[in-house]
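Tutorial, part two.
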Amino acid sequence: MVTLPYHEDRMHDGREGGWRQTLDRHHIALLDELTTELDAEIGSAVLAERERAESEAARAMLAERERAESEAAQAIQAERERAEAEAARAVLAERVRASDESRRKLSESLNQTLRRIRQTSAEHETLQLVLEESAACAQRAVVLLIENGQARIAAWRGAALHGEDHAQGHESPIDLSEAAAIASCVESRDPVVALAAPAEVSPILSAALSGAGAEKVYLFPVTVRQTTVALIAASGDVNPTPIELLCEAAGMRLESFGAPPAAPAPKKPVSEPLVHIAASARNERPVKDEATAWSKLTPAEQALHLRAQRTAKVRIAQIRISESEALRKGTQAGEIYRALRGSIDAAREEFRQAYIAKSPTMVDYLHLEITRSLAHEDSRLLGRDYPGPLA
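Running the prediction step on this input gives:
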């Protein structure tokens, strides 16, 4: 064993203590460095997590805001559509109400006019009343009397006719062969719509009724026992259905007069008398068949037949006015009876009880009028469900 001297032992201890101190310092420095780096990494991680959380929260808030804005926009759009729908319904309801009110007033006016027609005591009064009452349905109108293939101007309202023009029209009557539309109306006994051209309605009527650029003329026949004895020519914002009803009522009234019709008083005085309705037209009577001629009927039966004809015409005319839209759709579909079943069935039952049941010679004038006025002589338009004439 080597024993160091005392002073050497102290030197050795001093060197060992210095190393330890150096190691301790390095260890502490390393710990401090690691602690600093760890703190920095932790802070960075916390900051990144915080930024991620804040970003996700921002995105969530943005998504929530967009969802809320979308729902608000949808709610606003739904409310706008609801308001627009309610406004449209209100407008439609107002139009329906106005239309119903207009139809009610028109119906009341027509009923009053029909009563006045029944109260007329002469043919010229009847035609003049039709001319005057058509003012609500047409701006311009002319009454024409038909005889021997010719038409003569009897009276007018609103038309561009003056004294000399009318005198010329009376002295030189309209030849039906030179006025195709008038001839068609006379022959078919149905209303006709034509161009306001000289070849269609004659030069004088073309000039008189084509005012303010009117392009159409409506012709309505007045028939007496299946013969056209007069026409109403109208133009300018024409509502045809009421005028047609007035002409049918006028024809029924003319049948009840025994004397030829005098001229209706025109709006402007004329010096020449007007042509009378041909007496031969008044001698044509309806018959049921060859075995039951009009001449073989008793006066009471003849009166009943005439009432039945008038009833049929008025009843069907009322249906045409009150259910014009259903009639239009039924005509387009070829199912008029199905479209108007309720009204037609009611009219058939009334006619059966009032006339068919009371006379073995009675003709189903209602069926004839349905075919003529509703189906325009084309029975196929009535449809397969139509039951046909009353037995």
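The radius of gyration is 49 Å. In part three we will examine how such features are distributed along the chain.
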